[in-house]
Amino acid sequence: MKRSRWALAAVAAWTLAAAADPAAFTLQHVLERIRPADGHFASAYRQTRASTLLTNPVTTHGRIAFTAPDRLRKVEIAADGSRRVVTIDNNTVTVRSNDGNDAFPLARAPMLAFMVRTLTSLAAADGRTLRDRYDARLEGDWAHWQIKLDTGSPDSSGKPGTIAGQATHASLDLAGHAGRVDAIELDSAATGRIRIRLLDRDAGK
User: pTM for this one?
Assistant: First the structure.
């Protein structure tokens, strides 16, 4: 019994020491390092999308910018040179392209909503929300880390989790090193796999 109490005390002491040490590899400390200093970041990116509906992966590039708490602007340039600008503001998605303009509620784009909510939590270094809402899990070390998020696995009845009220299961992985995010990967049966590689992040930490 005494040994058991000693073991619990040792674990508690180690946990408190790790929490106090800013160099400790914990989800909260990673979030504090990668959060943008002024709530804004911008980066060039290269994106690859693959799904069962596509014969070959589709690659685009451009620039992405996020301003806390929930404003996103993404310029997409396709291989043929066509350009599309996606803006998210006040829970509304606006798309401008050569084919015209469109606007619709963010709730109609569950994967975009998933990404915006994640970026909002990152900008606030809000690990509690990421853990409670998306079961955030940190893997790796400071040299190469991953934060894995999930909207929820199917329950015993086979019903999947939900994003913005829609029945769909999705995951989002963040990969990086030290205080930098290098890539964002979203995956769902509905949209396929989208990998965004950040090339020259120029704002924040």
Answer: 0.79
